[in-house]
Amino acid sequence: MSRRIEKNATSITVALIQMSCSLTPADNLKKALDRIKQAAKQGAQIICLQELFHSRYFCQSEDDDRFGLAESIPGPTSKALAKAAAAAKVVLIGSIFERRAEGLYHNTAVVFEKNGALAGTYRKMHIPDDPCYYEKFYFTPGDAQPGFKPIDTSLGKIGTLVCWDQWYPEAARLTALGGARLLFYPTAIGWHLKETPEMKAAQADAWELMQRSHALANGCFVCAVNRVGREDNLDFWGGSFIADPFGRIIAKASPGKEEILLARCDLSSIDWTRRHWPFLRDRRVDAYGGILSRYLD
Amino acid sequence: MSRRIEKNATSITVALIQMSCSLTPADNLKKALDRIKQAAKQGAQIICLQELFHSRYFCQSEDDDRFGLAESIPGPTSKALAKAAAAAKVVLIGSIFERRAEGLYHNTAVVFEKNGALAGTYRKMHIPDDPCYYEKFYFTPGDAQPGFKPIDTSLGKIGTLVCWDQWYPEAARLTALGGARLLFYPTAIGWHLKETPEMKAAQADAWELMQRSHALANGCFVCAVNRVGREDNLDFWGGSFIADPFGRIIAKASPGKEEILLARCDLSSIDWTRRHWPFLRDRRVDAYGGILSRYLD
Fold it and tell me: ipTM of this model?
């Protein structure tokens, strides 16, 4: 019954944990667990960790040995997260380099309930491959059916998309159409050290703009959490933020510092915004078939 | 042969004509024709007029008499535009309240070639209906098959989407997948006079943000042209702009003044941007089926 009441909650306090990662996974896990505790003390009801928070961003080169970082679900990291969720009584979104089977690895978001139960998982669907982001080497793309589906929690449906997914309006749309009121994007995005200040600014702007547009197009909250700190060739730009259903930023973390970013998300603003900007009402679902094509040549 | 050479042009100069409209359609047409001439003198190769430039924005109430403003294509306004395109030797995008048949009216973008030939038309697909924007009363939604298709011109393929379409990532995506390198959005969007300054700013920001996101998601240019001036209950906010394939604004008009906004669009930046941010490469076309649903409940 409490579950039902909470689903009708009029607001949810979200916390995003923006942190740097050391070379020692155990230290990163300990840091994350400490921050989860702190965020809960500050009133957080849903907490989201950054992408692959357990280690440095290992995809900067293609190295067989790094598959050794992967874990099963359940596994040590997911168990520690489940325990942390239960202890803090929060819905917790983590990100795990998942070993699904021998030679089959995923970049997976995991969601735990307030009692530590696994609420659901999402395996990253769009996999990048760029210099210093050699993710296609490591991660098999998600293959769930449907591929984009919110995860049902005691606080309602939430979307967990991961990093490169953030550039795809389709992913946000599908997850919102599935009923997600908040979209979370655990992220690891940084600047190549050699880039110009102008290009760095443009990249961080573009990253923020694209995700704000998902909030706006779909009338839902978007919560993006990114790591900070220099790791090899990349300088992760932080800038975690929470946008409201009209795409306005209601909380934003600094570009270079560790931070627990909190915001109270007023869920009634979803319906209010969609009534005033009724984009979902007017979609031409009869005319979108070409979206399923690679290119229309 | 010149057509072929131009299609390989490495840049195109775009002009957007942001203007106010009087109560006299003939005056508005004259103003538009004058500005087309001026823009061409300034080097414009493609010129785009604002939505329904021929009249005040008549959809602020539901009034049968206003169907009298509509015209066939070809009709007097389209013929005047064709002539202007030929005289100025430009590709010209106009916007017409189209009378397709008795009791069947559309909000239609028309594209003329440099020699005055009709290159194509696009009937607005997404139709709004909000206080002071009673468009569902006037406009039948577009029914072309496919609904979103670029128009082929001597300067390459361009997309002509119209106003409310600008809030739909699907429309931009489909038109870009069809090969459009520039997306044009003739627009009539304004503030209700009673809105707060804070909400006005948020609305104009949202409008710009959403369209910049289409440039970014699709790696193409976006050119949005809006009217200015107070008309009854609405204050049209202008702010016409041109964004590059990374979503950066390269030219922007003032909020309240008439203006011819020009920008040179470097077409080589499309491939450059898409190589560096290869979003089209990684789309999960196998997993987007739900986009064709109204809601996934």
Answer: 0.96
Instruction: Mark B189-217 as b/e (b = at least 16 C-beta within 10 Å).
Output: bbbeeeeeeeebebbbbbbbbbbbbbbbb
pLDDT for B243 equals 98
B3 pLDDT above the threshold of 60: no
Please check whether residue B283 touches A, CB under 8 A. Answer: yes
Q: Hey, is the C-beta of A152 within 8 angstroms of any chain B C-beta?
A: no
Our CA-based measurement puts residue A289 at a distance from the nearest CA of chain B, in whole angstroms, of 7
- What span, in angstroms and rounded, lies between the C-alpha atoms of A295 and B174? 9
DSSP state of A72: -
A48 within 8 A of A256, measured Cβ to Cβ: no
User: What is d(CA B283, CA B181) in angstroms, rounded to the nearest whole number?
Assistant: 19
State the catalytic residue, choosing from A48, A163, A220, A265: A163
* Residue numbers in A near B293 (CB within 8 A): 177, 285
Check whether B275 has a pLDDT greater than 70.
yes
The pTM of the whole model exceeds 0.90: yes
Q: Which CATH superfamily is domain B11-292 in?
A: Carbon-nitrogen hydrolase (3.60.110.10)
- CB spacing of A296 vs B174 below 8 angstroms: yes
Q: Which helix (H) or strand (E) holds B85?
A: helix B76-88
Phi, psi (degrees; rounded to nearest 5) at B40: -65, -40
Class of residue B101 by CB neighbours under 10 A (exposed 0-12, middle 13-18, buried 19+)? exposed
Q: What is the mean pLDDT of residues A93-99?
A: 98
Domain layout of chain B by residue ranges: 11-292
Q: How many helices (H) and strands (E) does chain A have?
A: 7, 15
**CA pseudo-torsion sign B211, A180, A279, A276:** negative
What is the C-alpha separation between A39 and B157, in angstroms, rounded? 51
Please, are residues A119 and A65 in contact by the beta-carbon 8 Å criterion? no
Active site residue B163: yes
